[in-house]
Amino acid sequence: MTVPAMLLSLNHVANRDAAYLETIFALSNGHFGLRAGDPFTPSATAGTIINGLYETTPIQYGESAFGYATHHQTTPLLPDLRQIELTTTTGTTFKTQTLVDKTLDLETGQLSETWRVSDGHHQLLVTLASVVSQQEQTSASLVYTIQSVDFTGELTINKSLTAPAQQADSDDPRQSRQVQTLTTTTEHPDGNTIAMSIRTEHSDQSIDLQLQADTGLTTHVTMNPGATFTYQVVAQVSQINTVMPAVSATNIAIEEDAKAYWHEFWNSSDVTIEANPELNRAIHYNLFQLAASAGRDGRTNIPAKGLSGTGYEGHYFWDTEMYMLPFFTYTNPAIAKQLLQYRHSILPQAKQRARTLGVDHGALFAWRTINGEEASAYYPAGTAQYHIDGDIAYAVDRYYNITGDHEFMVTTGLELMIETARFWQDFGNWSQINGKRQFGFYDVTGPDEYTAIVNNNYYTNRLAKFNLQRAAELVTEFADQATVLGVKADEADQWHQTADSVYLPYSEERQINEQDDSAFQKPVWPFETTPKQNYPLLLHYHPLNIYRYQVNKQADTLLADYLFMDLPHAQLKREYAYYEAITTHDSSLSRSIFSVLAAQLNDTKKATDYFMDTAQMDLVDLQGNASDGLHVANLGGSWLSIATGFGGIQFKDQCLHIDNHLPTAWPALTIRFCYRGRLLAVRYTHESTDVALIKGEPVELMVNGKRQQITTAERSSH
Amino acid sequence: MTVPAMLLSLNHVANRDAAYLETIFALSNGHFGLRAGDPFTPSATAGTIINGLYETTPIQYGESAFGYATHHQTTPLLPDLRQIELTTTTGTTFKTQTLVDKTLDLETGQLSETWRVSDGHHQLLVTLASVVSQQEQTSASLVYTIQSVDFTGELTINKSLTAPAQQADSDDPRQSRQVQTLTTTTEHPDGNTIAMSIRTEHSDQSIDLQLQADTGLTTHVTMNPGATFTYQVVAQVSQINTVMPAVSATNIAIEEDAKAYWHEFWNSSDVTIEANPELNRAIHYNLFQLAASAGRDGRTNIPAKGLSGTGYEGHYFWDTEMYMLPFFTYTNPAIAKQLLQYRHSILPQAKQRARTLGVDHGALFAWRTINGEEASAYYPAGTAQYHIDGDIAYAVDRYYNITGDHEFMVTTGLELMIETARFWQDFGNWSQINGKRQFGFYDVTGPDEYTAIVNNNYYTNRLAKFNLQRAAELVTEFADQATVLGVKADEADQWHQTADSVYLPYSEERQINEQDDSAFQKPVWPFETTPKQNYPLLLHYHPLNIYRYQVNKQADTLLADYLFMDLPHAQLKREYAYYEAITTHDSSLSRSIFSVLAAQLNDTKKATDYFMDTAQMDLVDLQGNASDGLHVANLGGSWLSIATGFGGIQFKDQCLHIDNHLPTAWPALTIRFCYRGRLLAVRYTHESTDVALIKGEPVELMVNGKRQQITTAERSSH
């Protein structure tokens, strides 16, 4: 592993906009995140973000209706733990003059930043080394090194905790809303410590923040030009509703904790794109931030923006299962399991939601949520995206296939499969379609949010079919547990029969799967007369305007094609061409899938072009809103592009497949991942596909279409 | 005309609930309405309602999007002008003990009410005679007759003006919201007068209310058992943004004004159902309240609840054109003209709205509005109901056909036809449907609000086809004016061609018109397992739940069948049977149409059953929410049931048709109406159809299928 690819600096990022940098260099550990704000300049967007902490406020509707989501759940932005105040005895304060450097070390998890600060007369150079603990997950080490450039005299260093200033609420649905109902109490148990307790008024959650400075919260130090003083702070962030442990870790211990964690992480997760330092850095950055975003406790999940920003209010979406879980399933199955455990924990709310939607059996997961209740205030692109049930079922099945974790299925997975299958069975309906009795789903919205409230969305139907089929198979495989869960024999039979008859729209004329019953009837969006600045369309056109045209925000039918990978090559090629022409990629979830499928179609140019955009999405600020937080699903998507696309890693027909689709321009690619208890490393070159068994028992794989027993470093000719 | 049918008393109404009675006995004159509250008990729902007065407040969306309606427009409930305070020198106050009587005289417009009031010791009988002026429209006469039952001593009478107490906002979309931003100033220019000026803070409208009591606002009178004192008050309500005239009318003048107006009204509008006093009273009541609800100044329209309640916030909907205008067009064309003039006055806002929806030409009228801007906060059952454009065009054409008002077409009607036609032309799209190049409309909602966001709603397409066709014909007929309005020859040609190719969904299997492209694919709503208390469905089921089934809130395809009346009898019969089985009539707009069509199908039983419900909807509180205001569209619907249904009055093939569909149970029916400057009276019996020319030149009509010259009282054998 070359060191440069593991260091991200200012010259690798899109711009120096303060809020953008706060996101890009944010540090997190699945429990909390620190946005990387300027510590000398309080910012309304810098602060601390806690995974799973939310405040509720009633949703105001212009016109309400039965069964609408009742409450927003909003993750608040908490005080910025990194703020520091440097003042002189004459009362002047040092403020940032220049940001000299920011460097994130992806091997150690340490962020090193340097600012030149000035009080108008003299200058200091301040370096801050920040690390968040990864194993115990409640600490951060903040080490400030203050060097006088030309200042002589007494310097007062002061640490305090202040809530970020409130911003105005935005109309952009991708941003967050402000939380006004936090109550805060602050204590100073001793001169070295400040402790803040924060409580959400309506959801009744609490969190404790604490700062401990080794030389005192207020420290006076005499400086001369060239002199250096090191000021060490340990920050602590309690678990939600949990009292802070009395003893805090040391700065060194936190650094060691993180270093060890990331070492282990890269050992099982590393991806190396050889001879391409820029892309190699980007993919490492993505995996680092993706891993840092995931809740690891079974009670939390992965917010759409991770813990790097409060965009989308800190909510969990289907993004987890479809875009992020594959990475964890293949590299850190323990985390994948916890993420699915979270879904299991909200099954009661999901069952209730199904009832509210008039479905008497099974569970319907909330489209966006933290606490399990639906928080989407716009059902056409929220609750109507029933496919989330199929996405979760698919993720359960994938987890089981890749890990072979039988115990998980018994305790968690099977019930998720059953309750989602029950939902589809009860939600859908039989009717005569094309002369056959078929099973369909009406008034649904697929992944593509530029097409809403349609009948028989191909993706939805395909996932429902899969869900019913797999649930039926799994209740046979786990017959005892199925009985415990109340599944009757005829119930599984019914799922089998229904699955066989789920209707899948297909256009005879175009010889491709059709996005929904009426997709091809509508005119194509007038792309040629749409000005570039009118993208994303959702910010410039009324939903009814967008919906009445053929235009996709993201992969929809193609997403199903990627998941099931069972289309004849020629049809996939037609389908890809058709849908690509009507897709805006206004969603960050789009390009990765187009990259994967292009790789499968051996269209190297498209595959790498889409991958470039995917891999560097936030580093070049492709979507223009990275300041609100990272596009974490896309971080996972970039791994999909590499692993499933170029690396051809996919479980199919009860076997793991590895297919070499290495782009022409890349000399070699190495991917590490786990499969049923083994750790494997695959090195792809244009000559060969080498599968190394790093750890574990020998295993049989399909490599480039040939069955192969992997016993140690195996070599397969290409 | 028998007198009993013209008197509505307490024993003719559903119950004695205070808010219900406030609605039923409300008096209005197109400009303002007085809810008939208990004058001794301030009520949060009693007060004064001004047509066209509204306050704006920003619409709060849980999740907003481009082009959403930005502001609520809410008609506030203003002070109750009828309140009076009766106190004794010992400080006791007389409060209602018993409501003795309420009688509304439909011939004079006078409401007479009697209460027995008590101060806990003694009793008075108080009678209030209320009349609102109909010609100058800004005054009301309130005459209180106070008789002592057993009270001896000095009685203090006091009149003041107090704003109604605020109620909590409701989640029922049919109710109103509260207005909190009125500023009020009150003056007492002299001891007899109280003047209140009310201003809406955001919409910047003003209205002045004034009370003048002949004996002083505070009057002391010595009472003995049996003694009577008459206290006369003239109330005045200014026009919006207009200063009150200095001199007010006298009580007598107001009574005379109303009496003369209603005399003239019944002369041109009377409907008599013979030998059926109850129904006869109901229809008279309906026409009285309908006439009292209509704005007559070209700047206002007919709120969904008239001026009898603030339900639906005082908004104007398509109800006007489709349900209420027919009555005015046939009986009071001057009012019909003013109502269409209102639409013309908001054309600029409608053009702007079309642009916001991505349609470059023409106008799209707001689904619900007062000031012309869209105020619907739920576009799937608001803005998506594009058919309002066709409804307005249809109403223009009907007005022109029935009145022959050439001048109106030049100044107003033609432009409405053109701008709506332009909208359809630009909004729709060509595609191959059933092997033909046809013109369709995607993602629309028809009249039936239990089915939303569908493709090619039959009703919408049918109206669009009509609109394009008639616009093309009328620009030929009014060629000069069309040129002034910028219509090019090829534009009209295009409308012709498009109209010819508008796609109309038809089910070959069922041999009936299909509500939309996917209507019959969906399962039928599980009516058999739906408890009675779960109606109206909209209050008990999520929209997605309702939408995914075949279930109609109201006539949809059948409404088109009624408008165009061109289906073969057998098909109409099939269509009626099919849609009737899936219609809940949860909308008050439904039953009248089912009655009309049943009459046309000679199904007398259904026609009269639906008519009974229609005619007495508010008098029996069929919908359960008359307390929020009258269902004014249904008032118009009851006239449609009679005139178009039983009376067969309809303009078709360039001629007015009269067809006798008199129900078996009725011995005779007489309908008065105007046609091209004539006043006609048609008496239907089971033996004959007699058309009398009351006023005007001879005219040719089709009576029971035969062309007939009406010169004087004509008799046509049945």
TrEMBL record, chains A, B:
Pfam family, one: Glyco_hydro_65C
Biological processes per GO annotation: carbohydrate metabolic process
Coiled-coil residue spans: none
Domain (Glycoside hydrolase family 65 C-terminal) ranges: 651-708
Domain spans labelled Glycoside hydrolase family 65 central catalytic: 285-639
Domain of life: Bacteria
All copies of domain Glycoside hydrolase family 65 N-terminal, residue ranges: 19-230
Record: residues binding substrate: 318-319, 553-554
Compositional bias annotation for Polar residues: 176-186
Region annotated Disordered, chain positions: 163-191
Positions of the catalytic residues: 449
InterPro entries, per the entry: 6-hairpin_glycosidase_sf, 6hp_glycosidase-like_sf, Gal_mutarotase_sf_dom, GH65_N, Glyco_hydro_65_C, Glyco_hydro_65_M, Glyco_hydro_65_N, Malt_Pase/Glycosyl_Hdrlase
Molecular function (Gene Ontology), one example: hydrolase activity, hydrolyzing O-glycosyl compounds
SUPFAM superfamilies: Galactose mutarotase-like (SSF74650), Six-hairpin glycosidases (SSF48208)
Family: Belongs to the glycosyl hydrolase 65 family.
Full protein name: Maltose phosphorylase
UniProt source species: Lacticaseibacillus saniviri JCM 17471 = DSM 24301
